[in-house]
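Ticket #329: bound-state structure for uridine-5'-diphosphate.
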Amino acid sequence: MKVLVTGGAGYIGSHAVAVLLQKGYETVIIDNMMTGHLAAVHKDSVFYEGNICDAEFIESVFEKEKVDAVIHFAASSLVGESVKDPLKYFRNNVYGMQVLLETMYKENVEKIVFSSTAATYGDTDIVPLTENLPANPESPYGDSKLIMEKMMKWCDVAYGIKFVSLRYFNVGGAHPNGNIGEDHRPETHLIPIILQTALGQREQISIFGDDYPTEDGTCIRDYVHVLDLIDAHLLALAYLNKGGQSDIFNLGSSQGFSVKEMIDAARHVTGKEIPAQIGTRRAGDPAVLIASSSKAKEVLGWNPTRTDMKEIIGDAWRWHQHRPNGYDE
Ligand code: UDP
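RESOLUTION: The complex was predicted; output attached.
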């Protein structure tokens, strides 16, 4: 089976390609290299550099490669940036999906697995979050992903294009081979920032608020290992191949860790001091976000096995030690 992986040079996309190839799939990567890295492009994959919004380019790839299914990661994904520049998010994400679906329809490709987000739920007190809760995004990023889900829903109704939308919670960890991992510029995510502090690249980490209504006052999130996350994508492909109906699934580990607990776990894994100070709250951060992943487990047969925080941080630490400057030599 030949799978088109959009955004295959990014953090999650590169892990998807590695696992797909290892399991015997053929892969075709599309990436515009705005946030992707050439060194993250798997040498055994076909690769086209170009933009998801460029209809001519996308069509030419579909015509040449005759893919059987799409896994769609290519998107802009920073909540804060999306508030400042919403049109960037509607162009790259929403219009990108428009081009992709038009091409899939034209070329008779009828299966898509989509990288969605817990940001579709918005600020809520409900724990854990289930897929049937009303979606009420608080940012253009969350809204763009919700609109993309709706576009796929109506393309199923009209053209029979089947989709699985996977709503990610907090993704962490790296491939244990240490060759691919998280490298965002600028880095905003908690685990890489903690580990860059452990490496001495940052003097300290700022904890964004300790006055939340949680036990230690810091925000609680649900962290899932990137390889467990990718397993769910392969199960979603298998589900669609078997004729499964279009659906939406949360992907989290269903356990919550506070920011302070994450820093402590990283101190334990790395043996480093990791200085931390309490800073102000970051706008738009809900106190607690925890997934119910029962539906993915029941329907897709998902069984996340790397749920120990020491494994998630340990694998990320291996990557950061191996490539302290990320993909730069
Ligand atoms: N966080 C923090 N300091 C940082 C980066 C993140 O305290 O330097 C907190 C952030 O407020 C949130 C959690 O860590 O509660 C996870 O943040 P991240 O940006 O990794 O993911 P998000 O939950 O925003 O998707």
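RESOLUTION NOTES: Residues 170, 188-190, 193, 205-208, 219, 221, 259, 282, 285 surround uridine-5'-diphosphate (CB under 6 Å).
TICKET STATUS: resolved
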